[in-house]
Amino acid sequence: MSYLLIIFAGLLGLVVGSFINVLTLRWNPAEDTQVIKIVRGRSHCLRCGQQLKWFELIPILSFIFLRGRCRYCRKKLIWQYPLVEGLTALIFAGVTWRILDFNFFAHYFFSDPRTNFWVVAVILIWLFYAAVLIALSIIDLRHYLLPDKIVFPAIAISLLANLSFYFLSLTRGSLFPVHGLNFLGPYADVVNIHFNVLTSALAGAFILSIILFLIYAFSRGKAMGFGDVKLAILIGLMLGLGAGLIGLGLSFIIGAFVSLIIVLATKKKLKDAVPFGPFLALGVLAVFFFGQTLTNFYFSLFNV
Ligand SMILES: [Zn+2]
Q1: 172 and 48 housed in the same domain
Q2: 46: CA distance to ligand 1 center in Å?
Q3: 277-300 vs 80-101: helix axis angle to the nearest 10?
Q4: Which residue from 84, 201, 163 is spatially nearest to 131, judged by alpha carbons?
Q5: How many other C-beta atoms can be found within 10 angstroms of the C-beta atom of residue 171?
Q6: Are residue 101 and residue 218 in the same domain, yes or no?
């Protein structure tokens, strides 16, 4: 039964992925247009401007049937289309699988009808977070910026979600975990026990953005931009304090590693290597999927 949910999330990911392609490819930092206006309107070939028919817009399948070329001008379609659609589908399926795996959520979901509503809500909010992180990463890679028009509404939605989860956790019989989602496993309880789902999110947003602000200020904007500081608020709200800090640490490690490879491979200078937003997104996914495994491994080193 949970497989059906995971497959459904994957299919939803294909659709959302193609929506993210439209959003990020039409994004023009010079124009001050609304997100809604960008995604409205029919899709065109980026090269010849020909309006596309519905069967040319099916995620991944269209790319395969068209053999990666526009039917009208025969120019190559960019790889971002199938890549982002596939990646989003994979991440959506993974996120759903992982949440059902958290805190026995799957057990709750299939045994107790009182939990069905909020387990689905937790899955939906995390699919939303995943979509936002993917879209922000692509825009950051293409334009070196993280638009407020995406970050600010996402912060508002995250605040609202955390507030709802907090009141839900106070509601008798809701079975919502009082300390929120535990991304790090039982070892993290020492820290998590001092926070509820709301205070953990707020503390995470506060501490993470302070850390990134200090790096931003001391490097005079060279190590990262102010957009990364605002994104840190969102990430703190998503993960809470403990997992947020681990996620931030992981994004520094991943960032340093990838930057080193790029510098060695392309002889670019470190300062013009890569934007930091995608690494923050990767850090979130890393702690979301592997936080528990990493924490268990780390502590197992001391319990020989
Ligand atoms: Zn064309």
Answers
A1: no
A2: 7
A3: 40
A4: 84
A5: 11
A6: no
Domain count, the chain: 2
Task: Flag whether 130 is in a domain.
Answer: no
Q: Are residues 26 and 164 in the same domain?
A: no
- Whether residues 235 and 269 fall in one domain: yes
Distance 32 CA to ligand 1 centre (A): 27
CA of 54 to the centre of ligand 1 (A): 15
158 and 100: one domain?
no
Per-residue pLDDT in tens (0 to 9) along the chain, 304 residues: 688 999 999 999 999 999 999 999 888 877 766 777 777 777 888 888 888 888 888 999 999 999 999 999 999 888 899 999 999 999 999 999 999 887 667 777 777 777 778 889 999 999 999 999 999 999 999 999 999 999 999 999 999 999 999 999 998 888 888 888 888 888 887 888 889 999 999 999 999 999 999 999 998 888 788 999 999 999 999 999 999 999 999 999 999 998 888 888 887 666 665 789 999 999 999 999 999 899 888 888 887 5
What spacing in Å lies between the alpha carbon of 133 and ligand 1's midpoint?
A: 29
Q: End-to-end CA distance of the chain: give it in Å, rounded.
A: 39
What's the whole-model pTM score? 0.93
210 is in which domain, residue-wise? 144-304
Residues near 186 by beta carbon (within 8 Å), at least 6 away in sequence: none
